[in-house]
Amino acid sequence: MIYFAHRGASSLAVQNTLPAFEKAREAGARCYELDVHLSADKQLVIHHDYSLLSTAGVDVPISALTAAELKQIPLKNSFSTESVYVPLLSEVLPMIAPELDLLNIELKNEDNRYPGLEQQLLTQLQHYPEIAPKILFSSFDYHTLKRLRSLSKNARIGLLTRSFDVSQALSLQAESVHLNYMRLTGKILECCHQNGLKVYCYTVNSKETATQLEQLGIDGIFTDFIQNFQ
User: Fold this and answer.
1) What are the residues whose beta carbons fall under 8 Å from the beta carbon of 160, sequence distance 6 or more?
2) Which residues contact 15 (CB under 8 A, 6 or more apart)?
3) Contact status, residue 118 vs residue 107, Cβ threshold 8 Å
4) CA-CA-CA-CA torsion for 224, 179, 105, 126, nearest 10 degrees?
């Protein structure tokens, strides 16, 4: 079973920030997960929500700010007095590249909020030929993944879903299905494996739960406590 550092080591540092990915790497992580958006100046930036309300107390969407403007808004940091900001994807990739096995990039693009996000992401990854084959793309938005597949026949795709439908995964030529571990059933697991699909569950922070899932036969988990699984 493999372990993804969910938004970096998000139990040790502010999620989806450079310190979170640095601490995950220091803890021995080889697989990571992060979320990507487009800034107002079309830069690929890493953040979970569509706005900064919960992370910085500023009710403004990521899409309304340039990458430079995002660097002027410190995120809430309950871990230290260090000022942390929304990072660029180009800042994160070199940090985690050493000994990287797999990076799951979740495209935050419901209702095509960021037209062109898929192409922008694929284009930027061309500058990292050693990393590109290790990228697994996922999204809750099926149409985002369809556009991605139409742009790249070689893209590795994971269907991120709240309502399992194996036909969607197969139509995408996906290699995996990602779902909340609370939604996992033996029937879903069996269906995925019979169709050659791996199953990755989020967000698993208990070793006991992880062990139970491993015994069921799942292929990997996303965890905030990557330091406990190395």
Assistant:
1) 106, 138, 139, 140, 178, 179
2) 6, 7, 8, 48, 224
3) yes
4) 140
The pair of three-digit structure tokens given for residue 184, joined into one six-digit string: 């996992």
* Tens digit of each residue's pLDDT (9 = 90 or more) over 149-164: 999 999 999 999 999 9
CATH architecture of 2-229: Alpha-Beta Barrel (3.20)
For 53, how many CA atoms within 13 A lie in the half-sphere containing its CB?
6
CA distances for 111 relative to 41, 82, 161, 192, angstroms: 20, 35, 15, 26
Dihedral of CA 144/101/28/201: which sign? positive
pLDDT in tens, 167-186: 999 999 999 999 999 999 99
112-144 burial, b at 16+ Cβ within 10 Å, e below that, comes to ebbeebbebbbebbeebeeebebbbbbbbbbeb
Residue 138 is encoded by which pair of tokens? 């996922």
